[in-house]
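agent> fetching stored inputs for the zinc ion docking request
agent> found them:
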Amino acid sequence: MFLKKHFQSKTHTSEYDKILESSGYPYSMSFADIVLKNGPVLTMDNSRRKVTAVAVKDDLIIAVGGLPHVARLIGPMTEVIELDGRCLTPGLVNTHDHFLEHGISSAFIVDIRYPKAKSIKEIVESLEKRIKEVPKGQWVLAHVWDETLLEEKRFPTKYDLDAVSPDNPVYIKRVFQMGVANSKALEIAGITKDTPDPEYGIIEKDENSETTGLLRGRATRLVTDHIQWSMEEKLTAIKQACKDYHSVGFTTVIEPGLMADNIEAFRESHRRGDLTTRIQMQVGFLMSLKETEWAVEKYTIGGDDMLRITGLKMAVDGGVGPRTALFYEGYLDRPDVFGNQMVSQEELNKMVELGHRNGFQVAIHAIGDKAIDISMDAYEYAQTTSPRPDPRHQIVHCYFPTEKAKKQLVDLGVVVNTQTPFFYFLGESFLEALGSERCEDCMPVKTLTELGIPIGISHDATVTQPLPNIGIYASVARKTIKGNTLGTKESVSTETALSFYTDSASKHCFMEDKIGSIEVGKYADLSVWNFNPLEVEPEKLIDWKCQMTFVNGKKVFEV
Ligand SMILES: [Zn+2]
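agent> prediction call returned; pasting tokens
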């Protein structure tokens, strides 16, 4: 019960701040609840101080320094944790992950990624196992198959799935907007042999014009639009996501693009005392002025330090792999393709200005150079039309900023979220789409850091798994999973990479005075790691693993 209460509304201005101000030596009157000692402790404060011990009382850090300084706070009831060479860092801050979607995927979706399932037979077996565990009628989903890797070397069909699922709708997803539905799912979606193909989509049929279950492009939406998660399922998913994120050291996540139902799920989770990750919610994503009007009418910024609405999410372009990121210059293999623009400059200006005027932090998805220019011009328009101190708008992704955009980022105080982990997981597709020369400038985190722009990195889960070891490694090495590099001129040091998950990232949340570094008076959000990342060769960073995580001074994960 105490734990539950602990994660509910908190005000930061604490007694400790007052004690700290009024006494020469703080907290001599009471002992610490927890002392972590025999560091190294990477505080990630402004001076990048390294110490060996930290003391925690209630939800706050009350002492940071050498052992003699901290040991005085060890009382009979204090839990003393020997770090024994393990490394302590601030709890990590993730500036853009689809946290709820990750939770749903982790809690409910059968993982059939190769080599988990090597054949259609194995896919069906894992589905059968899940179907036995869930009630009749409940959706059963699996992600993702790729027929080129499957033993049978063919697409699965509804007949494969029907054999084990007469009563449950089943949908198994392939990458790139394809999937197979069983007969029950087709029935729910109202798809028959007579259903015509939707725009930009194909309902696959056999020689007798009977549906095979395979859906391509927009036809997948005919089924996926019917897949809905109940409030209880979402609450389970949020709990699961908290567990997963704590297990890799995260304590705060910016959750982008939530519509009303999902915002309510987070609020309910927090009311129940189950939310152990600090979540900052961005409403969206908003595709038009009309939708933006809906958002500013329905929501205002606010909440507490565990759950808060901060932003509005918008998008200008798509992604590099599908050739939809918006560039001035065409793609390497498709010089006539420049990407997609999802909203006009004029409309975006109005959308951004409306959010800006209503006090929101606006976050725009922009990857290609042209998309980033459009976004920055919208931010400039908003700030010129309705000047406001420190709006700290965010560019999400920001892979190829122009010189003009870099200057605007500085002048307008915009923060940059980017995905260096993609170098590792998706880097090969970047090289293929743009060539190695252009990729050298992709995610110029070194240049942006030198310009003083706060960088936050993230994994854009569920695009990639939230693995900060990979995020740090990829920021330093800029290598793909196959070992090819995307140039090293934008490589940063391990310490700078760590700042993208700590002090620098905390600025995206307007919480730099409360989280992001280990300092007296800040929340005791802490992560313990198997070794000091600053003392190893870059290749060894891949082995960096979280061993313990604290939020508000409470242990939320331990190996
Ligand atoms: Zn995203």
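agent> quick read of the result: Residues 96, 98, 256, 460 surround zinc ion (CB under 6 Å).
agent> awaiting further instructions
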